[in-house]
Design brief:
With 121 residues, this protein is mostly helical. It is built from six helices and three strands. The chain starts with 7 loop residues before the first helix and ends with a helix. The model has no long low-confidence stretch (mean pLDDT 92).
């Protein structure tokens, strides 16, 4: 996936789309009016920007996600580790754990996740 960055407002809008997609664009306008206090042109402007970034699609007045929320945030996390910790996941985990100790339940859950995703040699 190409690198997509979102500002705070775009992130809120994207979360609304992901929570309701697929949805008619008119319904998206009503939701944004209610939740963000936006007028119709603002909703369509932000939607167009995020469609151009490749995140969503608006075809025949139906808005769908091209990139899922999970895939988007996974890519953002990978990019953060790359940019901030030179791609080193252990360096990121060490930095995170130095500020927030894990409970036994969290440690067990992380061990299960590591085992599930461990690359077979």
């Amino acid at each position: 996936m190409k690198k997509i960055t979102l500002g705070a407002v775009e992130s809120r809008f994207a979360d609304i789309v992901w929570s309701h997609a697929p949805l008619p664009s008119g319904e998206l306008v009503r939701i944004c009016e209610r939740e963000l206090n936006w007028k119709k042109p603002t909703t369509y402007t932000v939607l167009r920007k995020l469609c151009n970034k490749g995140l969503f699609r608006n075809v025949n007045r139906t808005v769908t996600a091209v990139v899922s929320r999970a895939d988007f945030y996974a890519a953002q996390s990978e990019q953060f580790v790359t940019d901030t910790y030179n791609g080193s996941l252990p360096a990121f985990v060490a930095a995170f754990l130095s500020r927030k100790p894990l409970s036994d339940a969290e440690a067990s859950e992380i061990r299960r996740m590591i085992d599930a995703y461990r690359k077979e040699d």
